[in-house]
């Protein structure tokens, strides 16, 4: 049989038909008779002894959802689509024609081999917490590493052939590792990110604080319940965070609950929401802003910015988030913020999700956050307070939404402890102590109504931007609820 090349999509449809079973008997792994979703190990490398033509162009493996190991070596591939294959542990795509390779959000990935790709100029590794081995060409290569906590980056720092190296400093386990960087390589490193002075010590994370903010009616408290997932005796979702379908918020005070997910302790902080009707306004809204500041005083693992629909994006909610960024958290908070699109009935449709992401990034109100944040995820978290409809189906959607949230949060390793937050809390502590108010002991469930005037005065001193926005902008037609 004459060896040549064939488009990857055509070859895949012939040997691994989308609606049929595998017809290919070659490769090291025997998958004959299996459907795409049943295959865990896939070898479509070009082995001349099997008489296999080289495949070329774009290789799309999104239907191989349970794939653990992929081998596609010695071909003419130039594009690889595997973004949803979160079970992948080993990828060998050596000896192809890739120019760019981007591996993002693979929680189980341990090893990548992309050697002998002579045209490869950029390799990006992001949020692959278990990766330890990366074999790559070094000539003219730009290497970008973020969220890869087990990867020894020093091996690349010691290689003078790397063209450009970008490292997110959150990934550096010890400060001393930065001090030992070879002086000869300093001119080659175009970006190490900011030296993280906010993190005097990289924390050993034993608990993750998740702050949920958003507009009234966006599904914010429902999302908190989906993540908390406390079951009653019948095995159904229990409403721990009060939720409702009406536009008037039912969350009138900060609520904090703790739970364990996959061996990690989570502290879920549900804030009062922005809306057009409700009861928490003016001074009481300022009180809730102060409570929120105290709730995250030990640092934040992730802010979930909840968006119910693109038409529901609220300018005041964006302004409030930006005021927190400017006065309390700093610019780096973008990296610790995830936009969560709730009530997205097509959350399983990757194409529709990508279309929605592109639209959010172009939306004037939220474009800065959407283009700078840690990611945009889609969930379908319908209310269970319905008199009609398939309640079993709604439970199914919420369970799947929880899985999506768990997978995303599992890759969010660090706690963000900005110096600005520490300074604000210290000022609040000092001023509150001078007036005999102890927020630390009475944070949750207390309304401090007798001392409300004092608290507002103190907030104006310690966090004037946030206080002015909350007190003035929310005093009339909108409020924190």
Kindly describe this structure.
With 481 residues, the chain is of the alpha/beta class. It folds into 2 domains: 5-185, Alpha-Beta Horseshoe (Leucine-rich repeat, LRR (right-handed beta-alpha superhelix)); 207-480, P-loop containing nucleotide triphosphate hydrolases (Rossmann fold, 3-Layer(aba) Sandwich). The protein has 13 helices and 20 strands. Strands 14-15-13-17-18-19 form a 6-stranded mixed sheet. Strands 2-4-6-8-10 form a 5-stranded parallel sheet, with no helix packed on it. The longest helix is centred in the last third of the chain and has 20 residues, at 391-410. Residues 171-184, 189-202 and 473-481 have low confidence and may be disordered.
Based on secondary structure, the structural category is alpha/beta
Q: Could you tell me the number of beta strands?
A: 20
> CATH homologous superfamily of the largest domain - what is it?
P-loop containing nucleotide triphosphate hydrolases
- Any idea of the CATH topology of the largest domain? Rossmann fold
What portion of residues is helical?
25-40%
Describe the SSE topology.
Layout: E1 5-7, H1 8-15, E2 41-43, E3 54-60, E4 69-71, E5 76-81, E6 90-92, E7 100-104, E8 111-113, E9 122-126, E10 133-135, E11 142-146, H2 154-157, E12 164-167, H3 175-179, E13 207-214, H4 220-228, E14 255-261, E15 264-270, E16 274-275, H5 282-295, E17 302-307, H6 315-329, E18 337-341, H7 350-362, H8 367-372, E19 375-378, H9 391-410, H10 419-434, H11 439-442, H12 452-462, H13 464-473, E20 479-480
Parallel strand pairs: 1-3, 2-4, 3-5, 4-6, 6-8, 7-9, 8-10, 9-11, 11-12, 13-15, 13-17, 17-18, 18-19
Antiparallel strand pairs: 14-15, 16-20
Helix pairs in contact: 5-12, 5-13, 6-13, 10-12, 12-13
